Amino acid sequence: MSRSILILFIFFSIVGCSGGDIDEVGLVTENAMVVSAHPLASAVGADILKRGGNAVDAAIAVQFALAVVYPDAGNIGGGGFLVLRQQDGSIDALDYREKAPLAAHKDMYLNEAGEVIEGLSLKGHLAAGVPGTVDGMVRAHEKYGSMPWAELVQPAVELAARGFPLTEKEAVKLNEERNDFIRYNTFKPNFILKDHWSEGDTLRLQDLAYALRLIRDQGRAGFYEGPTANNIVAEMERGGGIISKEDLQQYKSVWRDPITANIGAYKVISMPPPSSGGIALVQLLTISSQFPLGEWGWNTAQTAHFMVEAERRVYADRAEHLGDPDFWEVPVEGLLDSAYIMQRMANIDLDWASDSDEVSAGEPVAYESPNTTHYSIVDPMGNAVSVTTTLNSSFGSKVFVAGSGFLLNNEMDDFSVKPGYPNSYRVIGGEANAIQPGKRMLSSMTPTILEKEGKLYMVVGSMGGSTIITTVYQIITNVIAHNLPMQGAVNAGRFHHQWQPDWVLSEWGALGPGTGAKLWFRGHKIAPKTGGGIGRAAGILVLPDGRLEGGADPRGDDASAGF
């Protein structure tokens, strides 16, 4: 190793943590808490709870508010997952993930030679899957809502119509995306094409306000039928997309059984396939429970080495075995079997890095995105909701639906457009996640709730594409193994490994004093994360006295609100 590279990694390893103070305690409230990616959305959710709404009511209101104030990931043109734990301990999970249009096919992003056409699944009209967000919120309200539907959508209508001040980060992102907004839209979205946005500028979204009013007044029909549906189909026809009226009419969210596992004193409740997050998280936490991470210390060389090796094997399983369970037989019980999980770790060398080219998926017994956003909610009754929602990349496909003012997702890139070919997050997939009409694409979203000794303990999740799983894993480990407060656990620097490519992606300074250099000498290749941190998380921890501590990520404009 050259002297210059060694100096780089020594410097890299000793720079302070990128997130913030790991001992910081977040907002603490007595009764209720909402943590989301934007202060205005968190305030909307807290207000719903103050007015007597439950956690699901607040989740619906926050979802629509984020579609306005956090347009790069909040959405009505995307999808997501919701995990619920009610005060009596009953649990549920809602899959409102996007679907491949009926006209989609396995080779739709390949040229005549069978090679991937770069960017076709990532930007523009053909990148969009059938949106699921509105249907998901309607289904959640039908089953668990307590307040009138219109009252939950109205705050978003007002934010869009009256306008809201941009944060510095949001202004920068709008400026950065200007050229893509012009390039990929059939009509110039002039409402968002100001020459230069600055912090404090007011953004008014009148077309989006109109679309939200239709949803407020007509529910599901206000989006999947009538003017909005017509606008979506017209947009597809102008831009060469394939979403049809039949796709919109047929879309249905699905209630699924959550992934659950008892690990020591904790019960993990997370999202099942087509999310890979719940299975991968349980695998990682099960492995970690067998090793003294607390004694090894937070982000020391021994702890980081072990976590990377665990992540390497879990992501290899993800690539081979995970997909939409309606189309692919996912060996859920086999993947969650503790004996199988530990067998996968049997060949780990605690002193030297594995070679990912020599690590393949295991053979479990068969029993039968990066811009996303997450919000966590606990209501005064003790109901908890963990929701991760996305357009996939920042601002999705970059395509606004003319006349309706909302962005379409680019979730088709989350399919394996060709077996063995990496997507925009460099994640490799196989046949389990191949494109099929009506199929849901595999996800890394990991909305999660933890119980401790039978009582609600933690609500957590993150954005970040393929890094979501490892972000949630590290935050939970920061709390239960290293005794960090919720805010400190969210602040703490992060690192990530996903099998392929074979490197450790790390925030600057995340690996603690000297750890980066020590990992390098153990055979790990470390790549510093540029252009922002890894993930943006939202967590709530139930303290021993029953109060709630919020953890809002300092990497963004995230905020906690409660009472």
Give a written overview of the molecule.
By secondary structure, this protein is an alpha+beta fold. It has a domain at 3-27 and 256-370 and 445-556: Glutamine Phosphoribosylpyrophosphate, subunit 1, domain 1, CATH 3.60.20.40. It is 34% helix and 16% strand. The chain has a 7-stranded antiparallel sheet with strand order 1-18-17-13-12-9-8. Strands 7-4-3-11-10-2-19 form a 7-stranded antiparallel sheet, covered by helices on one side. It has a 3-stranded mixed sheet with strand order 14-15-16, covered by helices on one side. The longest helix is centred in the middle third of the chain and has 21 residues, at 301-321. The protein is globular. The chain starts with a helix and ends with a strand. The model is unreliable at 1-7, 12-19, 359-369 and 423-427 (pLDDT under 50).
Structural class by sheet pairing and helices? alpha+beta
CATH architecture descriptor of the domain at 3-27 and 256-370 and 445-556? 4-Layer Sandwich
> Strand share of the residues?
15-25%
Major sheet: 7 strands, antiparallel
CATH superfamily descriptor of the domain at 3-27 and 256-370 and 445-556: Gamma-glutamyltranspeptidase, small (S) subunit
The top-level CATH class of the domain at 3-27 and 256-370 and 445-556 is Alpha Beta
Taken from the alpha-carbon principal axes, the silhouette is globular
Kindly state the number of beta strands.
19
Low-confidence parts lasting 5 or more residues at pLDDT below 50?
Answer: 1-7, 12-19, 359-369, 423-427
CATH topology descriptor of the domain at 3-27 and 256-370 and 445-556: Glutamine Phosphoribosylpyrophosphate, subunit 1, domain 1
Radius of gyration from the CA trace?
Answer: 22 Å
- Roughly what is the average pLDDT, rounded to an integer? 88
What strand line-up does the widest sheet have?
A: 1-18-17-13-12-9-8
Output the number of helix runs.
19
Fraction of residues in helices? Answer: 25-40%
